[in-house]
Amino acid sequence: MEKVLRGYIFRLYPSNKQIELIEKSFGCYRYIYNYFLDKNKNYINKFKACKEIPELMTENVWLKEVDSCLLRCSIFNLEDSFKRYKNKLSEYPKFKSKNKRFKYKRVGVL
Q: I need a surface site. Which of 6, 32, 43, 57 has the fewest CB within 10 A?
């Protein structure tokens, strides 16, 4: 039996309030990713890093405005980047900037 792969494309028309929340979410994602990339030059332990998020939230109150799963996902993606680098599958992880696209994979059950 042949396996059939399907993909769906959705176009979203968010309101101004939703656009603001999306932009805040991407900004917080980028901040956490860059923070731990700067702090851990060669390796990241995702479990220890996730335990540091509440402390970062007290220092930076604006991190509380977004979903905490998003912040953990940035750490998991950074760990994946380091693994790919160590296995010589990609280059060293780079800092995220506002102008570049990046992906967000939701971890866990919806």
A: 6
